[in-house]
Amino acid sequence: MADAGIRRVVPSDLYPLVLGFLRDNQLSEVANKFAKATGATQQDANASSLLDIYSFWLNRSASWEGCSQSIRE
């Protein structure tokens, strides 16, 4: 059963983060093409970066992996 309080994320939610990542890494030509193709706009300056989100996901995945491994033992 899905938790009603959790908002489903769709790929387009990540577009501003991808656009910011491309611009932060001096990939302006790609960023401009991406923005034009997707209609993405620059992310809020206070928003987490794509790298922050990915790091969080990696750490969470590692902790889940360790948890599931200890359950198996």
UniProtKB/TrEMBL annotation:
Lineage top rank: taxon: Eukaryota
Protein name: Nucleolar and coiled-body phosphoprotein 1
Species this chain originates from: Homo sapiens
